[in-house]
Design goal:
Beta-Lactamase; six-stranded antiparallel β-sheet; alpha+beta; 2 domains; Heat Shock Protein 90
Length: 414
């Protein structure tokens, strides 16, 4: 597809010529912008510009279904159209598109009986294309308008419909985000309700993410010509960000569902072995476990996550391809103090007070894997058991120290 766009004869305004690869690249950028939208105004601002840019139209409208009326919610055009107005569904072309769940392409609006000519005479519009937002039970429509008689090509309608499909996902995501925010405010006073909310949020928010990822594959596979390297890189970046968001949702769920582990205590060295199997440190890392840990008895589920989080953090933030991690323990009558020490880059004093806060990282987010919640989850697990954690670091290397009380039937607690 090549869109050969000429300057408008009255305004002189032009839009860049777009090949199918360029249109696909532009659509990928739109998908990424919409994936970050958290309100309808943002969605409309992105779509109104993209709709016009993708086809070189002289105007674009964003229409929402409002009961039995069409609400012209937003527009981007060379002169005003109908922003803010409502029309009966049966009396306008956007209503026809939504009621029939199919696009409308009209080369001459004054020759089509579906067009209310009186509403169009004050405008510049001579030709139009309208597509439904969501093809099953449409919730709105996106319209493109031209000041000269013009019949949009099938490829243009296809790309406009693809934009509408992405928009449908974004609107659903915004609505879901709004609902989840309302639920969070209502449920934050109750831990049990908060756990149920986190489960729903983690599950439901992944659905639009998967849709966005699928659409990115569509954009790549449907291109008529090989995509430029830059476009394929954009697609890969989009997918990696979707994957990062899925990991973040998993971590949020783990954070919210953290609760006290009342399981039967087992030797700590067994717990550490299980943690190492979970994270599988790279071969270049040497892990040393002090013999004293065999004496400590701890709940397996909680401490496996703690040790896995601390060892994984040491590996992830190490600045070399290989390193050493030492796990030790000190004991007194009341309990244990476990240490996880590494020979990594260390942690500056000004950062040590914040590293256990949620979403805190010492590197830019695009330079690390994960969500930035690892240490906050570790801290939350320990806090839920009434324990504490701190970090010591001066120069190279860091040591994380956390407490754990002995079980009541442990030696020394007679």
């Amino acid at each position: 597809m090549t869109l050969d766009l000429q300057p408008h004869r009255k305004t002189g305004e032009t839009f860049p010529t777009k090949s199918s690869a360029q249109a696909a690249e532009r659509l990928v950028a739109v998908v990424e912008e919409l994936s970050q939208a958290r309100d309808l105004d943002t969605v409309m601002a992105v779509v109104r510009k993209a709709a016009r840019d993708l086809t070189g139209a002289d105007g674009a409208t964003f229409v929402l279904r409002d009961g039995d009326k069409c609400f012209y919610a937003d527009e981007n055009a060379i002169s005003p159209l109908w922003k803010g107005q409502r029309f009966p569904m049966k009396n306008c072309i956007s209503g026809w598109v939504m009621l029939n769940a199919t696009p409308a392409v009209i080369e001459d609006i004054y020759k089509d009986p579906r067009i209310p000519a009186a509403a169009y005479r004050p405008t510049f519009v001579k030709s139009l294309a309208m597509v439904p937002i969501r093809q099953e039970a449409p919730i709105g429509a996106i319209g493109n308008y031209w000041a000269e008689n013009r019949c949009p090509q099938p490829e243009e309608i296809a790309i406009l419909q693809a934009l509408a499909n992405v928009t449908a996902v974004a609107i659903e995501n915004v609505d879901l985000y709004r609902q989840l925010q309302e639920k969070l405010r209502a449920l934050e006073a109750s831990n049990e309700q908060l756990r149920r909310f986190a489960w729903i949020a983690s599950h439901d928010l992944k659905s639009p993410l998967r849709s966005i990822s699928s659409l990115s594959y569509w954009a790549e596979e449907d291109a008529k010509t090989p995509l430029p390297d830059a476009t394929r890189a954009h697609l890969q970046t989009l997918r990696s960000r979707v994957l990062r968001m899925e990991r973040l949702l998993d971590d949020l769920l783990a954070y919210a569902l953290t609760e006290k582990d009342e399981g039967e205590p087992v030797p700590a060295d067994i717990v550490i072995a299980a943690a190492l199997e979970t994270i599988a440190p790279p071969p270049g890392f040497a892990i040393f476990v002090d013999e004293s840990l065999k004496r400590a008895r701890v709940p397996a589920f909680a401490l496996e996550r703690v040790f896995a989080g601390l060892i994984g953090n040491a590996v992830k933030h190490h600045d070399r391809g290989a390193g050493t991690i030492r796990i030790s323990m000190k004991e007194d009558d009341a309990g244990y103090v476990f240490g996880v020490a590494d020979d990594g880059p260390g942690i500056l004093p000004e950062h040590q007070a914040h590293i256990f806060e949620i979403f805190q990282t010492l590197k830019p987010r695009d330079k690390i894997e994960g969500s930035g919640m690892g240490l906050s989850i570790v801290s939350r697990i320990l806090e839920s058991h009434g324990e504490t954690i701190r970090v010591e670091s001066s120069g190279r290397g860091a040591t994380f120290l956390f407490t754990w009380r002995k079980p009541l039937d442990a030696p020394g607690n007679d």
